[in-house]
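Worked example

This section walks through a single chain of length 194. The input is the sequence exactly as stored; nothing has been trimmed or padded.
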Amino acid sequence: MLHLSDMGLRTAIIVLLVAIVTYFCLRPTDVILNSSVFIYRDPEYVYSKVSDMTINLKHHKYGQKAVLKKQFTREDGIKTEIYEVTERIPLGLFDWGYTLVFDTTMEHTRPGHQFNMHYSIWYAGLRGHITRTMTAKADKGGPGCLVQEDMVISTPWISSHYVLNHANYTHPDGLYHMKLTIESMHEYFNDHKQ
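Given that input, the structure is written out below as tokens.
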């Protein structure tokens, strides 16, 4: 007959508690962020700029570069691009930070109106999905469209608060800076040079 000693019972309880705490700390948690901005340009033009990965990273606080790795059209007719993206995330202490390198897939689901981006950073336990939709201005008072960004990031529970703060800090600000760039006269004149 097997009997657990007091030491064996304590060890079993400690191992069980550590397993439970580890499970709760590492369980997947969804971080959801929705933001939007109105841009005074035609939806198709806005789409051409907002779906450009170079412009996306230019207006992302931590984005450094994007390299197009592969471009193809899926069997269902959706144009798809795969980029290798590099971001440098500051740690808030001196100039320390860490560099993330990950693949991002961009699907042009409704060219001129909507696209999806998917990314996965396996070593950080992150998976993200972003949908951006361009909706034309309802009245006929001039050009303009609403850019709606819906983001869902799956992350371990222990890092979900940091990820939410990071996303709240970078993405709405990135949309606002895209708005300034897209609406600027400088860009307008560059696009209409003779």
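What to look for: The two ends are 93 Å apart (CA to CA).
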